[in-house]
Design goal:
The chain is an alpha+beta fold. The chain starts with 5 loop residues before the first strand and ends in a 20-residue tail after the last helix. The protein is built from 14 helices and 19 strands.
């Protein structure tokens, strides 16, 4: 039996198959018929292509099957590739054989349907050019993160998803029954990563993260993916520079591999290219407050965290992501130490993206003071016994170390220029949505 060499649509759109007879398989993206001719737009994972199916160019049964096949019907076709400037992508397939694999039922998704309806139909909407373009860019971003750290000598380190401790605040924990006990879904790998740097020194991880935040904004998910790093011997300045390099590298990889998808999404490629080559500034929280006061006439009380509105106003004055350091100690997590040069602030940072996309990276130097961390945890009502293993890290060969987490979905949303973070992940989980 002769094996069929199946072409991919991008090979045709690149002009590599012009004038050649090819076999292609995929799905009907759009279709219309007029008498003895069917115009079908066929899609596969690489693109869309116009196919012209004329009565007389193929067996009558195959023509009639093609004529009655609805969108999302799967099929195999064979035909001659011809250049045609009027067709999407500049080429069409003149079909000589068509085999419908599955006759789809009437597709429930049509134009101008609500975001909530599309989320209900996510298992089908994921086939759209819009979502599939985002997911291709997401794949590049995830691959870039792995490449960035591996090329720089970091080891990939996996931490448990089920954890007995809170890391980012007890009010956002998802409780899980664990046999006869209870545990929690991971808020971060950080505490376990801090244990690992004493052995591996430079580590990173990509994993699911869970925050039970009762928020319905376009920036929040209850389940998301975080790319985290931790490194021995690094201070706050060192770790912020790594974060800047990583985000630039991610941008460069997307621009290298996904210009077609960025164009489909309507993103400004030249703007992204400029950002990828620019220097990302670093300012302090106090400087940020000053900018807001002087340039935006906003009175932000020192000691309050920056809200979405303040971040958006601040970033109006920068064309790139900005690193903001030294937030007030009182509003920071227990493991973020005070800055010896300015004790009312912590050795921590956020990277904020422009155009309203908010925080995309958050991190800090880590505290080495067991007494201070114990005090903070008691104030939070935490059981200190649960953290004795973590304090052991300070009792046996403690060293300066730092780390951060990059929110994959927020970076995807920013680079793709999409309005809602729900579209940056295949199947979003939020306060009100846990299916499909």
């Amino acid at each position: 039996m002769t094996k069929t060499n199946w072409a991919k649509i991008d090979e045709i759109l690149n002009g590599k198959k012009n004038g050649k007879t090819v076999s292609l398989r995929g799905w009907i993206y759009r279709t219309r018929s007029s008498g003895n001719i069917v115009f079908a737009i066929i899609r596969d994972s690489t693109g869309i292509l116009q196919a012209t199916i004329k009565k007389g160019n193929l067996p009558d049964k195959e023509f009639e099957d093609a004529k009655k096949a609805l969108i999302e019907s799967s099929l195999e076709v064979k035909g001659l590739v011809k250049e045609d400037k009027r067709a999407p992508g500049g080429y069409e397939l003149q079909v000589t054989s068509a085999n419908i694999i599955n006759f789809a039922e009437p597709f429930p998704i049509v134009k101008d349907q609500s975001p909530e309806f599309l989320l209900d139909q996510r298992h089908l909407w994921i086939r759209s050019q819009y979502i599939s373009s985002i997911l291709k860019i997401r794949s590049t971003i995830v691959g870039a993160i792995h490449k960035f750290f591996r090329d720089r000598g970091y080891y990939e380190f996996d931490a448990p998803v089920l954890q007995p401790n809170q890391c980012e605040g007890g009010s956002t924990l998802f409780e899980v029954k664990y046999y006869e006990n209870k545990t929690y879904l991971s808020q971060s790998w950080q505490l376990y990563a801090e244990a690992a740097v004493f052995a591996l020194e430079k580590i990173y991880n990509m994993g699911p993260t869970f925050r039970a935040e009762k928020s319905k904004t376009s920036r929040h998910l209850s389940e998301f993916w975080m790319a985290e790093m931790e490194a021995a011997w690094m201070d706050l300045h060192d770790v912020t520079e790594v974060a800047k390099e990583e985000v630039k590298f991610i941008l460069q990889e997307v621009l290298k591999h996904n210009k077609n998808e960025l164009e489909i999404l309507g993103q400004d490629i030249k703007k992204l290219e400029k950002i990828s080559k620019s220097k990302f500034p670093t300012i302090t929280y106090t400087e940020a407050i000053k900018i807001l006061k002087e340039k935006e006439k906003m009175k932000v009380e020192w000691g309050k965290d920056l809200r979405t509105i303040e971040e958006d106003k601040l970033l109006k004055h920068f064309g790139t992501p900005v690193v903001v350091t030294n937030y007030p100690s009182e509003i920071m997590a227990f493991y973020k130490p005070s800055d010896p040069k300015d004790p009312k602030t912590a050795l921590c940072f956020d990277m904020i993206a422009p155009e309203g996309y908010g925080e995309i990276v958050g991190g800090s130097q880590r505290s080495l003071d067991v007494k201070e961390m114990t005090k903070r945890l008691k104030e939070m009502g935490e059981k200190i016994d649960n953290y004795e293993w973590y304090f052991d890290l300070r009792r046996y060969g403690s060293i300066p170390h730092s780390g951060y987490g990059l929110g994959v979905e927020r970076v995807v949303a920013w680079i793709c220029g999409i309005d809602n973070i729900k579209d940056s992940i295949p199947f979003p989980r939020t306060l009100l949505r846990y299916k499909p």
